[in-house]
Amino acid sequence: MILNSAMTLLVAAACLAMMVAISAGSAEAARQTVFVKHPPIVSAGDVSETWDARQNVIDSKRYEQLLRTNPAFRQARMRKECGSITDPQLHQSCLASFDRYGPSVGSSQAPRHYHSNAGR
Fold first, then answer.
1. DSSP labels for 47-60?
2. What is the DSSP code string of 17-33?
3. Cα angle 64-92-82, degrees, rounded to a multiple of 5
4. pLDDT in tens, 43-55
5. Which of 11, 75, 85, 117 could form a disulfide with 91 if both were Cys (CB 3.0 to 4.6 A apart)?
């Protein structure tokens, strides 16, 4: 009787151990599975055959130089990028993001800030 009970417990423990191992393996496989429902949606204007990383860097540097040295350009960009933001805190944050492009060192012009009536 004791041998029969011990054998039953041993078989039950072995089955339980196998079930845990199988569950852990399934969970591992589930974490690595990636489901793609559809391919990315790309519009005609999203991709350019002539896009060049080097030219992009050159254009970005030119843009930043204009922000630093041309107050009219800087004000126009502030109006364009921040003017439609109606939340006062977000609007102020947008304007503040231009502070790093203030007048160049040695410039006699004080930085001008664009203030719109947005949110008023």
1. --TT--HHHHHHHH
2. HHHHHHHHHHHHHHHH-
3. 55
4. 777 777 777 888 8
5. 85
Token representation of residue 7: 């054998």
Residue with tokens 């030119």: 62
Structural tokens at position 51: 């896009």
Question: pTM of the predicted model, to two decimals?
Answer: 0.45
Q: Which of 66, 58, 67 is nearest to 99 (CA)?
A: 67
Structure tokens at 94: 């947008």
pLDDT band of residue 106 (cuts 50, 70, 90) is: very low
Cα–Cα distances in Å, from 60 out to 53, 63, 64, 65? 11, 5, 6, 9
CB within 8 Å of 116: residues ≥ 6 apart: 79, 82, 83, 91
- Please state, in angstroms and rounded to a whole number, the distance separating the CA atoms of residues 67 and 99: 10
Q: Are 112 and 79 in contact (CB under 8 A)?
A: no
